[in-house]
Amino acid sequence: MTDIDRSAYLAGLAPGADIDHRGTSFTEPLLDDLLGALRDPATGHPCFGAAEFHSASFEGVAKFESATFVGVANFISATFRGDAVFESATFRDDAEFGSATFEGVAKFESATFEDTDFASATFRGNAEFGSATFEGAYFDSATFSGDIEFADATFIDRAWFRKAQFETAAYVSIVCGGLVLLDGAVFHQPVMVGITAVRVSCGRTRWAATASLHLRYAELHLTDAVFEYPVLVTGSLAPFRREAPLPASLIDQTPGVSLATVAGADVAHLALHNIDLSGCEFAGAVHLDQMKVDGWCTFATTPSGWDRRFPWRWSKRNTLSEEHYWRVRNTRHPHRTVARGWATPPEHASELKPAAVAALYRQLRKSLEDGKNEPDAADFYYGECEMRRHDTTRPWGERTLLTAYWALSGYGLRATRALGWLVFAMAVTIMVMVLWGLPANDLKPQTTGQQVGAGQKLKLTTGTPAPVNPAGPLCERVSTERFEKALRVVINSVIFRSSDQDLTTAGTYTEMTSRLAEPVLLGLALLAVRGRVKR
């Protein structure tokens, strides 16, 4: 346009007017003239109606600071060859920056967005979104080549970074009242990410450098994630530095962080700190035995209390959600099992066989043992043995042996159970000794002699008579003296491995049995105690 036509066009514009500059090449003075024509005298800032800048190019610094876009702002495929300044800008309708290219610094600090699309945008300089507010934001397939700043940014509804490329070191701090979607994102350089959100999805993300992921309130999904370098995921209770105010959806929530799934992920380089793993699905993950899990992480637990059907009490132990799902699915009365405290499997949860659940327990047990967390690793050994005991594909003899091991001592991990059986066995042994094992009377040596030859030589023989079985009613055999003798025999047999009593035939075999079985029960009780105090 000629200068006269351009001046006439600009003079005809008013604040809030709709403009269409698709494909226009703006120099810095020309853009200043356009913004001056749209400047609202009341506020001193430009005000746009519907703004069409599709495929436009901007030379020099593009200054849209404090501008207000009442209608749709379309910057699709626009090119900013210098800095793009949208500080404190307000977008009251959709803001479209899809496939836009920012050659210089993209400044959106304190900007307010209704619904924003930066899909496939390229940020070759720094991207500054500090203190910005997004109703909803889409950064799908965006490329960040410079530093990234989302400090104090607030995403009221959702923040999507699917397949985004982070090519430089970055610190990202996001507060979102809904979903933060990072599916398919690639982090090429070390990054520190702080996210406060309801849900964070990192499915198919690729971490090509070390990273630290700090979360609050969020439920984290790591399906098919690839960790090429160590990545720390930690749950933070305290607010992040310069964190934006919490959205309404998070105000009444607890700041704990839970991990929902690591299915399909190689977790050899993953470290977890202060994460709730009670509902995490580990099935399908690779190298679980190399994952670092510290003592601050919590797992699901078994129901505790007395069983209504049988006279035993459930002991509390750490479990995996996969065992909960298996027990609910393989019981005659699922609703009763759920009522006792076992978790209901979600519809998408895969149905695993006991052998697969045992393999998960075995790998995570090794992970805890490598971290010198022997007591918690013992719970996973218990779970592994439980799944092996219920695995119908294993030989009958092995399952019978495991059942006996479970009943007698809880796989060598329940000291009270082993001690209970020991006391019961000793009581039975004492009863048998009192009734049948001790002879009727104390055995006294007897000496007999005979004269040999003419020289009046005497030949003497001393012997102990055979024990006489007690006779008479059983109630008459029970006395304090016989009970004390039986107790001494049992204690000597179990602990000191010796006995100086003469016994009847029944007593002899009873003592032999007790000397074999009862020390085993004592050893199992000591083994269970050692498993809980081992360093």
How are the SSEs placed, and which strands pair?
Layout: H1 3-11, E1 19-20, E2 25-26, H2 28-37, E3 47-48, E4 51-52, E5 57-58, E6 62-63, E7 68-69, E8 73-74, E9 79-80, E10 84-85, E11 90-96, E12 101-102, E13 106-107, E14 112-117, E15 122-123, E16 127-128, E17 133-138, E18 143-144, E19 148-149, E20 153-160, E21 165-166, E22 170-176, E23 179-181, E24 186-187, E25 191-196, E26 199-201, E27 206-207, E28 211-216, E29 219-221, E30 226-227, E31 231-235, E32 258-261, E33 270-273, E34 292-293, E35 300-301, E36 305-306, E37 313-314, E38 318-319, H3 321-329, H4 334-340, H5 354-370, H6 374-389, H7 396-409, H8 415-437, E39 446-452, E40 457-463, H9 474-477, H10 480-496, H11 505-533
Parallel strand pairs: 1-4, 2-5, 3-7, 4-8, 5-9, 6-10, 7-11, 8-11, 9-12, 10-13, 11-14, 12-15, 13-16, 14-17, 15-18, 16-19, 17-20, 18-21, 20-22, 20-23, 21-24, 22-25, 23-26, 24-27, 25-28, 26-29, 27-30, 28-31, 29-32, 31-33, 33-34
Antiparallel strand pairs: 35-38, 36-37, 39-40
Helix pairs in contact: 5-6, 6-7, 8-10, 8-11, 10-11
Would you kindly provide a written description of the structure presented here, covering whatever features stand out?
The protein has 11 helices and 40 strands. By secondary structure, it is an alpha/beta fold. The protein has a 19-stranded parallel sheet that branches. Strand 36 (305-306) and strand 37 (313-314) form a beta hairpin. Helix 5 packs antiparallel against helix 6 and helix 6 (374-389) packs across helix 7 (396-409). The mean pLDDT is 84.
